[in-house]
Design goal:
peptidoglycan synthesis; single chain; 9-stranded mixed sheet; 11 strands; two-stranded parallel ribbon
C-alpha cells in the first residue's frame, strides 16, 4: 500500500495492468490507472433517438480537452459500450443531492441530483477479491496528482522502483487528471475515484478496489464534488 499521505494512492490501482501487460512501459495507459452537458437533455432513453445522434453527442462530450495542464486527447468512443456514456437518468435515492453512489455490480457511478434523478457515469471497478462496499467520504481532492508505488508493489514488480519517490502528474500518471481520495472516520482508505484514459476498461473489473471514470467524466464529476461529499459503495 502507498504510504505517502500527501499525494499517494492505493498503488494496486496501477498494478492492475501496466507492469504486467506492457513490459518495460511504466505509463498511464498500461497502468490503467469535459463537457458539462449530460445526455439527459437529448432524451437518450427514448426510442426516437438514433445511434447517429448518440455517437455524435458522445464525440462532443468525450472530445479533446486542449486547455488542461496536460492536454487530454479525445476518447475513442468506439471502445466504450454506449450504455456507459454519461447521461442523466431516473434514480430514486434517499441520499442527499451531491452524494456519490458506486454500483460496482453494474459498473456505474451516480451523482444524486435530487428530484429522483442522477448523473450516471460508466466506470471500471475492483476485480474479484478486491471489491469492497460501505460508506466513505471525499477527504481530499487533487489535480494531476503524484503517484507513488507502495513497497509491496515494488517487491513484486521491481521495475516500479523507478518511481519510489513519486511519479509526477501527467498523461502517463495512473491517477490521471483528477482524483477523489476516499476517507473513513478521518483516515485515508487508500481507495480513490480516479481518471482513466483506458476506454476499453470501462465496464470491467480490473482494479484493486479503486474506481475509474473516463477522464472527461472524472473532470465533470470532480468539478461538482466538494470535500466531505458522502460516497456510498454498494455491494457487487
Amino acid at each position: 500500500m502507498i504510504r505517502d499521505d500527501r499525494n499517494a494512492d492505493f498503488g494496486e490501482v496501477d498494478e492492475i495492468a501496466s507492469l504486467g501487460r506492457r513490459a518495460g512501459l511504466l505509463n498511464r495507459r498500461s497502468f490503467l490507472a469535459g463537457s458539462a452537458a449530460g445526455f439527459g437533455a437529448l432524451g437518450l432513453a427514448g426510442c426516437g433517438t438514433s445511434d447517429g445522434v448518440i455517437l455524435a453527442e458522445a464525440a462532443k462530450v468525450y472530445g479533446p480537452m486542449p486547455n488542461e495542464k496536460f492536454p487530454i486527447p479525445a476518447v475513442d468512443i468506439s471502445k466504450v459500450d454506449p450504455k456507459y456514456y454519461r447521461r442523466t437518468v431516473r434514480y430514486e435515492s434517499k441520499e442527499a443531492p451531491g452524494t456519490i453512489i458506486v454500483d460496482p455490480g453494474k459498473f456505474y457511478v451516480y451523482r444524486i441530483e435530487g428530484d429522483g434523478s442522477a448523473t450516471r457515469y460508466g466506470a471500471n471497478v475492483g476485480r474479484d477479491g478486491f471489491l469492497w462496499s460501505g460508506d466513505a467520504y471525499v477527504g481530499r481532492k487533487s489535480e494531476w496528482a503524484t503517484w507513488t508505488p507502495p513497497k509491496e508493489m515494488i517487491r513484486r514488480q521491481p521495475e516500479a522502483a523507478k518511481y519510489a519517490r513519486g511519479m509526477p502528474g501527467g498523461l502517463d500518471n495512473p491517477l490521471g487528471a483528477r482524483t477523489l481520495h476516499l476517507y473513513r472516520n478521518g483516515a485515508y482508505t487508500l481507495y480513490t475515484i480516479y481518471a482513466s484514459s483506458e476506454p476499453e476498461s470501462i465496464g470491467t473489473g480490473i482494479t484493486s478496489g479503486c474506481v475509474g471514470l473516463l477522464s472527461q467524466d472524472m473532470i465533470h464529476l470532480y468539478a461538482r464534488t466538494p470535500v466531505k461529499t458522502k460516497v456510498v459503495v454498494l455491494p457487487a
